[in-house]
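BACKBONE STRUCTURE TOKENS:
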Amino acid sequence: MRNCAVLGSPIAHSLSPVIHQAAYRYLELEWTYTAYEVDEPDLAGFVAGLDHSWRGLSLTMPLKRVALDVADDASGLARTVGAANTLIRADDGRLFADNTDVPGFMGALGERGIGTPDAKPGTVCVWGGGATAASVLAALATLDAGTTHLHARSAQRAKEALELAEALGRPAGYVPWEVADVCATSELTVNTAPAGALDPFAEALTTNVNGERALFDVLYEPWPTPLAARWAQAGGIVLGGLDLLVHQALGQVRLMTGHDVPVDVLRDAAQRALSLRTRT
């Protein structure tokens, strides 16, 4: 029996236990996967208390940056991005940090035919300046996306993400927390901000939406967001937080168990769980 879990704050809404348990059933593993409310000051103490039965931890906000502080080693990607969403515990107790958000974001786009060599994102509009935004910028650099601008409530909040983009050779421009002219023509809009943050801009951001413009809103509950609903109604392409969740979880399952699972195993489990929440 091996134990795994997702940590974060708040954590009660997380679908990670549902999708990881679905993976274990598919793989016929008698593993457990639970959720724990853990904030930044408590992470070091939590990981210090793990015994030999523990194998992996998924990390959500606000732990993605401080995860590197408690890890003994980290992947090049996690170090470059400055954020990790996964901790793997070796048999000797050492912790290895990795980032599956970047390949997860790319995988979700690729599933919809976006980000392929024949369909590289052109102008990109990213909202939010935290760890998830940094992972998005790293993915966009790998995908050789076009001009990118980053909206944040202050230049200071966007500083780490913008420095990362610069270091990757794909600098992004800073834009204040308002709808700019370039937003009306961006081929890909990515929202990494908390629930409700873009609700006041939903109408303005969907004025010129068409079937070739895509929105990736990384929230999955509540869903659809006002922005995603208006975008879909206008005929645009919409990806949601569920797409990112299941694709980044593919990498976590592989790191924790050493096995691959079909993405639909995870997606179907998550969709069933969300459906049950909607009914109650």
